[in-house]
């Protein structure tokens, strides 16, 4: 109920979040949110043609939408005063009003012409309006992803030399397992140790310092793993250095995307986050380039050969570039505000936004969101428990883990880590194997670009469902190519190479980038960091399993059986995605809460009933096939169907009441 002398208070929702807020310190302890003013007191504030009761168009997700323009302007002034921030021309008050409804900048007379142009350019020309510092951050983060990709694939070229140097070339079962352990050691360290240190390291060091520190570890370990002893002590030494490499890989893989997301504007955040996968593919390609570059390097008296040693050590090069770049980048403003270093956060935000009004707007709104986030915090054990006990969290985590599992068990990293030996087994020479591996890396990089156009146009679930059968088919073609007699070597090599290349091209715009996007979208505010940590652990854990088992699987099942095994998992992945993963395209985060809160049993039953209608629409190309109404009320209301509209609207209104 509202009072005639005061504005309505924001509606409270009875939920677990309210209980959490009650356990925490008072939400208004900073006195940032002043009591809502009466109509008479609001007259004391300056007059603006953008009215106090003007409707908010920024969407239900804007937490400032429940306050009037004059109220948020007062909040902005108080924010600047409390943290000793420069508030020339009352900029934080105006920025706060802009944060309340950023889409109506052209109706705000208190904004100058230059400020309105900056708002327009941010929305309509986001790439051309980027500052040099933001470009520098994106470049450093891209190079950091390339470090990741190169660290993963230089071992591929080294496989042609190091097993003989350290006594693992006998082909025995024991040696196959040891070789798999050495190759997969970084991923074992990531899943078992280093990923779990990410939160602690970020809290203590900050985003850019974590990236610098992990690149330093990567550079040192890459250099050392290339120049160890030979014989039995050699593989022990190499194993230790590759475990050390995992200390650098895990936290960097989680931190770089967070750093990018916290610095980029929302207009380009999705695209720059996808650059992680793109530039990882670039690093994978460069790993093969260096393998080729050092192939003809003679030993020069160094035991076991110099070429594979230089190949392993070459992964330190992009890490050194990142270490040179990252100190000159500003720290994440969000991290600085979390450490109560608001003046430094202000200076950093001004550097990465094209206009001061945008910097003040983002800084103020980020502070509001941080207050909301802090009100949702629970002890780690409690949050971990609620990832399983709360249905919305459980379903979101399941979707993330399914994607992480299938990104590995689709078979791509078996090819990434062992392509040189796979191509050699098919009949290529050592040099030809490396050249074919470079082709794999080039295709993986080039075909990642279409994902930028397809992810939001077609949808995440759509891409996975349309590509998993093709991934299975071309893995089978590659595997069955090994049955072609070696006497017909050209046909044998052609079929195997074609199967691997087409498989890689399809993977690069589907199962490559989609899991990272699903992981970012499937969690709510309170569980986002924990969901990301578990996703990363699952990703690296199964990555290690692939690397560990491939040699033994190849010896026991031959190439045909090994490729067939992963082809089966692509078909199984289709069913997992179909029944367990909802579409997340074009939903707001608030709507996704509702999507993931649908009971899993209900979703599976719904999708099972839709199997035949979907088959008719997708395979038989039949039109006007009747199906069930979409599951979520938001989907029902957005679709036009006389059969659904009345029922959907009634259900939605009843639920809202």
TrEMBL record:
Residues 8-37 have a biased composition (Basic and acidic residues). The gene is TDEL0C02900. This is Major facilitator superfamily (MFS) profile domain-containing protein. The chain crosses the membrane at residues 210-228, 234-254, 275-296, 308-329, 397-418, 438-455, 467-484, 496-518, 530-550, 562-581. Gene3D superfamilies: MFS general substrate transporter like domains. It is found in: Membrane. Residues 1-62 are annotated as: Disordered. One of its GO terms (molecular function) is transmembrane transporter activity. Residues 137-585 form the Major facilitator superfamily (MFS) profile domain.
